[in-house]
Amino acid sequence: MAPQTHTAAVLVDKDTHSFTFEQRATPTPGPNDILIEVHALALNPIDYMQRDRGFPAIDYPSIVGSDIGGIVVAVGSAVPSSYPQPGTRVTAFAPSFYEKGKPDYGAFQKYACVWKEMVTAIPENMGLVEASTLGMATYTAMNGIYTAGLPLDGRYTATDKKALLIWGGSASVGASMVQVARIMGITTYVTASAKNHGFLKTLGASRLFDYKDADVVQQIVAAASEDGLVLKHAYDAAGGTRQILDVLKEFKDGQEPVLASAPASIFKPDSPREPGVAVKFVKCPDEPTERSKHFDYIGQIWLKEKLASGEYGVGSKVELVEGGFESLDKALDTLRAGVSGTKLVIQV
Ligand SMILES: NC(=O)c1ccc[n+]([C@@H]2O[C@H](COP(=O)([O-])OP(=O)(O)OC[C@H]3O[C@@H](n4cnc5c(N)ncnc54)[C@H](OP(=O)(O)O)[C@@H]3O)[C@@H](O)[C@H]2O)c1
User: What pLDDT score does 118 carry?
Assistant: First the structure.
């Protein structure tokens, strides 16, 4: 049973760039929502962007935050019994972005509502801290597959010669894509600092490159050619637009190459473009029914199965930040300053 009120970290208005800690009424989950007792929160760049700039747009007062490891306490009246039920340990991707920071749906509180599609039971051997790191990373990687125009349930063999360039493999959304691509049977060309190549190899990266090498573009083009592969798809987890386009332009014959970019920097007026190469922002389907089906596939089929089989798991190294909700501002400042192959998590 959830208490009547609980602690929440609130963004009170657009001019206050830090969290205010309040007691708020614990919501009753809507018909298609699941109420979760939050035990661990993983942090993402969108959290400090919304705190600092109110972008992506939120309505105030707002509760933001996306990544939860927790326990189901109640389910909405229309949630079928096949979805996680009270008492189930879960990873959850709170729909704060899609609900524009509407308070019931933000992760940064002790009890949060999450759309049923995005609540996934975790295996017994997984802790709630680890579980908290999965939501944003997994859904963004799968949205990247969708944005690149590939089927989410695609399975390829060597004869299909499917290849993907992943720029920023050690970013949290990059490390998830390395795993997703490995599971799909896609050969990956992955960039990261050399110190992160070891863990990316264990996640299944096929070929690794240091993006700081002056000739990294030539190295990648040469490696793909050596492997007899054509790079028609790229996923950017780190803002490497120019270099990615320089790789893809070498593979323009036939089908148009696609860059699926997670960073929103592609919307800047001076963001580079290349004739004959499509540049798309990573997102899910816009149409609500299609979106719900898409999330349902990710949360209730793909992620559930892959966690249970052990094929997929935590990508980045987990670093715990002490201090509960009160440490949110400081932890987000640390994230904004830059992390390397690391996911920051707060226990609450
Ligand atoms: N579109 C969406 O739905 C969506 C969803 C989630 C995130 N995002 C965006 O995706 C981006 C990544 O988010 P995140 O949480 O994964 O970030 P993160 O984990 O904080 O990213 C840190 C990593 O970025 C790598 N990096 C930095 N500059 C790089 C460069 N020039 N080339 C290659 N790698 C570089 C670093 O690699 P090394 O330490 O190895 O150098 C580091 O490991 C952010 O811009 C975020 O806003 C978008």
Answer: 98
